[in-house]
Design a protein that fits this description.
alpha/beta
Length: 351
């Protein structure tokens, strides 16, 4: 099996490559990435890319069709990957996350690719009542990022993709340690704050719900999607990827981190206005379709891996929210230097 991974030099891709090498040892792995975050390494181990057969660099908007010759499956991770970046680069977010994704799927189908795995998001549910959201429930996207994920899911459903099996994995909020760690994720932020300042400041009243999934369990779900038969969910599938046990209120996440990092204080803003991003998610369908690929990490295990991984690199940056571990800060720095354009394309000679 020959697998192309777009966005392999990011937070998820850096974990996924190693997982694929273990889970599918005979697979030939090919990476494709714009390399915005290639330098954001947070592990002392060898580069994750040493497990690839080939690494290509380029913009997913321009991915050449002949790169797909002989490819059996695609894991499409490349994206403007969170709400702050989506808000800052709204037009570009649609171009990369939506339009380039559908174009890639159409190219893949034309070249005989059999499986296309799209990293979607549970953020498509936005603000919801207390009832856990299921796949057929109404969507309420609140950001450009969430809207781009819905638009891609709809594009995949409407495009003429022939017999190619597509799986849109609506991932819960990512967390956990990675060789290219992001700290612009709620649990990761809390662990970093606990280590650097022994204080977690919850900006909301702590009541909003968040479904979480460890990055290692995201990789487990991707392996299932790469190998699933269309009889398990149909040729075009959008499915919530995560676990019912991983629906948490923000205050409970802060308390769990404080318990794992002794001496940490938790400050909650009880006077804060309601956080519009609050939803629980029902993962029943994923449990039924992929019983052998269910999340295996525990919240305590994810926190410990983050704590120990950051400790191993002597992390102590109390100003980490202005560091390269925040993806938006990287893009802003590159654009301010003139190395990236406002359209998030490298200036000539930079790559």
């Amino acid at each position: 099996m020959r697998i192309l991974i777009t966005g392999n030099l990011g937070y998820v891709g850096s974990v996924l490559v190693g997982h694929l090498r273990r889970a599918l040892p005979e697979a030939r792995l090919i990476g494709f990435d714009a390399a915005f975050f290639a330098h954001c390494l947070t592990a002392r181990a060898p580069l994750p890319e040493h497990r690839l057969e080939r690494q290509h660099f380029g913009d997913v908007r321009d991915l050449p069709g002949d790169l797909l010759d002989g490819v059996d499956a695609i894991v499409h991770l490349a994206a403007v990957s969170n709400d702050p970046m989506g808000n800052r680069f709204e037009v570009v977010t649609d171009a990369i996350n939506h339009r380039a994704s559908v174009r890639l799927a159409e190219l893949a189908a034309a070249r005989g690719v059999t499986h296309f795995v799209f990293a979607s998001s549970c953020s498509v549910y936005g603000l919801a009542d207390a009832t856990p959201r299921r796949e057929g429930d109404a969507l309420n996207p609140l950001t450009a990022y969430a809207r781009s994920k819905i638009a891609t899911e709809e594009g995949l459903a409407q495009a003429d993709l022939g017999a190619m099996v597509t799986t849109s994995l609506r991932f819960a909020t990512a967390c956990g340690f990675s060789p290219r760690l992001r700290l612009d994720l709620v649990l990761n932020d809390f662990v970093a704050a606990a280590l650097a300042a022994r204080r977690i400041s919850v900006l909301s009243d702590g009541s909003p719900w968040r479904p979480l999934i460890d990055v290692n369990d995201m990789a487990r779900a991707i392996v299932w999607a790469l190998t699933r038969d269309e009889s398990a969910g149909g040729r075009r599938l959008a499915v919530n990827a995560g676990s019912d046990a991983w629906n948490f209120q923000v205050r409970d996440l802060a308390a769990a981190v404080a318990a794992a990092v002794p001496g940490t204080e938790v400050s909650i803003n009880h006077a804060a206005p309601p956080d519009q991003r609050s939803y629980r998610v029902d993962f029943r369908l994923f449990r039924e379709l992929a019983p052998a690929h269910q999340p295996a990490m525990t919240l305590a295990g994810s926190i410990a891996a983050l704590r120990d991984g950051l400790a191993a690199i002597a992390f102590a940056d109390a100003d980490f929210r202005n560091s390269p571990l925040m993806r938006l800060k990287v893009l802003e720095h590159l654009t301010e230097q003139g190395r990236l354009g406002a359209d998030l394309r490298w200036r000539e000679g930079e790559v």
